[in-house]
Amino acid sequence: MQHLFSILPTYILLTLALQAAPEPKYLAVGEGVPSVSVRTEAGVEVKLSDAIGGKPTVLIFYRGGWCPFCTRHLAALAEAEPELTAAGFQLLAISPDQSAKLRAKPSHQKLPYTLFSDSEMKAARAFGIAFKVDDALVGKYKNDYGIDLEGDSGQTHHLLPYPAVFIVDHTGIIRFVHVNPDYKVRLSPGEIIAAARGALATKE
Length: 204
Known about the structure:
Blueprint: H1 4-7, H2 10-18, E1 37-39, E2 45-47, H3 48-52, E3 57-61, H4 68-86, E4 90-95, H5 106-109, E5 114-117, H6 122-127, E6 130-132, H7 135-145, H8 149-153, E7 159-161, E8 164-168, E9 174-179, H9 189-203
Parallel strand pairs: 3-4, 4-5
Antiparallel strand pairs: 1-2, 3-8, 6-7, 8-9
């Protein structure tokens, strides 16, 4: 089966970047992790603060398993995880996919780090990175390209997160933020590792 990235036309890859969407007003460096819950792969609700568990953490927000840019980024991060672990960080990735969909893709089954479901988009909204996809585009995704946002999330809110990286210290304070409404722009694993080390150095 061809990779989704190779078969989607330019139109579908560019639409989300080009559609009108408000600039995100996301949480800034120095602010604390919001009091929100996410769900594990088994569907168990957990507080994000408990998932962080007093450990320096790299939080990745991605659009979902259907997104080829996200899939490639998550795979690259898997290769960088040992270095992040050696630096004292854990890696957590959050998407709107419902729990049962988090590992649906074979490539996601191989990811060594924790995936969380934010199907109700409470975490993304609390972090200030949620935006609404136009209803007509949601229908076009499903009917023309087989991308079912409602089926993946189990919700009808039509919300997605801007891809984002939040680096949090052991106290739950945000020490680094990268958010870009252009879903094609992602930090490389090397940039994330450098940012994580820099965040700890700044804290110290």
